Amino acid sequence: MKDERLDARRIAAGLDESVSEAANLARKLGLDPYPVNYWIVDHDEMNELIAYSGFQDRYPHWRWGMAYDRQQKKDQFGMGKAFEIVNNDNPSHAFLQESNTMADQKAVITHVEAHADFFANNSWFGLYSDRGVDGSDPDAAAMLERHGEAIAQYMDDPDIERTEVERLIDAVLCIEDTIDQHRTLAAADSDDADHDLEDIHDRLDQLGLSEDVRQQVFDEEWLEARAAADEAAGIDDPRLDVIAFLRDHGKRFDAEAGKAVDREEWETDVIERLREESYYFAAQKMTKVMNEGWAAYWESLMMGDERFAGTDEFITYADHQARVLGSPGLNPYKLGKELWDHLENTTNRQEVADKLLRVEGITWRNFKETVDFDEIAALLAPDPVIAGVDTERLDELAEMADEGDPRIDAEAVDRAIATRDGELDSDDPEAIDVDRYPWKVLTYEGLAERHFSLAKRQNRGFIKRVDRSELEQLARYMFDDEKYVTVEEAIADVDYSAGWDRMREVRESHNDVTFIDEFLTGEFVLHNNYFTYEYSHAGGEYRVASTAAEDVKTKLLLQFTNFGKPSIAVYDGNFDNKGELLLGHRYNGVALDIGEAKDVLERVFDLWGRPVNLMTIRTEYDDHELEVARRRGREPEGTEVGIRIRFDGTGFEEHNLEPELADAIEASEVDYDTKPDEWLA
């Protein structure tokens, strides 16, 4: 054990060069990450950081101990080793486990640099603290530390019962995702926090949702019907930020007085601090697939394609990535990376097809019969000098640089030659070992050609898969009169950076919902073998439901909309003119777990201090109908019934939902049936 510890510390001590060069390579590849501070921690420290969501200081609460115990057991039983954790901050802080091999350390460092780029450039991360407006950067570590200290002081205050502080935290954590995550924290706090239908449409426009996803997830008729129903029911615009509403209008039930009383100042302060933390962490939840896929993509390119992993480290690294991407269920690393790969390939294919359609004699109608795809693959292969950069090719690179070739970093080539010829010592900061770091002598344009996705063996059939509708659309909007006489001339004009440029554009503006909506295509589903499955009420088991792209997309959108959790809004703060709270489940065909809903209502009562109500819709099945469906091998229809669950602090009541209230939340024609924890296998 002692030898292992010493070996781990030796590896950790040798990471300075890898950290520095990974950051340099990331920037050469067009990334623009926050600076990252790296810390080496032991096994227990890593588990503590994971429990604290990547930070060292949080408020005192039992949830952290539970999270620590869960992670410790995962390690102990081989269910998931933590290699690193990185937080969204400027600078970002990344924690590496000292027991990692050097190959693993390099892998997580390249992975972290991509995460830091995503944090710095994705607009959804910019919503926190209005960073997208005034250009300021998050100081999350300081914010969380302040919150931790303040809440700890309340717990230590002799005039405040510690159990009361813990009870309040428990209540807020039960509804921590009931915020308006599509707005900045400041905007959600404004006087105009109630949104009318027009504002909802505006926010959907900002999300960039297609008509397809609008109908499936934010059905237009449902929105309009809900607005009309709200008006008929006398309901103001539902408040999406439930926590803020409870903060502003909630009370505390005083058992001795037998009634609701005003909260103490410390209670409101705790609620607001936890709400701010929910807004901070919202972007990470909204972009899990994009962010992890982005990091996996660039890690793979740097470690494998650009040989950042040494020859003796590559097998270890390949096993590392295979285990990460191969974990079962809805794997955000795998789904995200495959979607980024698909986006890059389709963008590059459009770039190549655009050039080929300008060749005399090639049209969208005869494209597949006229184009020699083997010839195209050969023409797209990178220049041998660019692809095979090493010491022996430095003189060729120098000649290309002298001719003004934009793919070559002339100054870096001069330093590499000086290093080769002994004019620079190998330990000189200006020295370049081109055999070890060939990317240093290339520019962004050179690296884009060196790693052009359609020239890679695994993607060589991608151009041939282009369908006529895509070609016709390209031809339809081809306004440029430029024409080529030969295919060679056309391919020579291909912009090798098109895919990467488009990926960075998407990285800036999308979240998981819009990312999946726009880029999960039929071609993607077919070639990556995705399908949906659902629970069969007739058979009493889960079964494959569909391999259609539209169905896969629907299920995934459902999984990621509102963090994959039921959408709950405040419909009335004075229900039935009795000061009761009326919450509504914005029903999309997926029923609530009534048992869990009741547990949450008990916690909401602690924040409201008066009776609380929850509207929802459930599907009821007649026993005879179930039996007939089972015999005939079909699914029962079921009947959707609106209900209102009421909790008064002592017990639950269930009421039929008034028709006008049922209309306010009822499902559209889109029915998602049941939702297992994971849609993909």
TrEMBL record:
Residues 15-354 form the SpoVR protein-like N-terminal domain. InterPro entries: Spore_V_R, SpoVR-like_C, SpoVR_N. Pfam families: SpoVR, SpoVR_C. Residues 566-617 form the SpoVR-like C-terminal domain. It comes from the Archaea. PANTHER family: STAGE V SPORULATION PROTEIN R. This is Stage V sporulation protein R. It comes from Halohasta litchfieldiae.
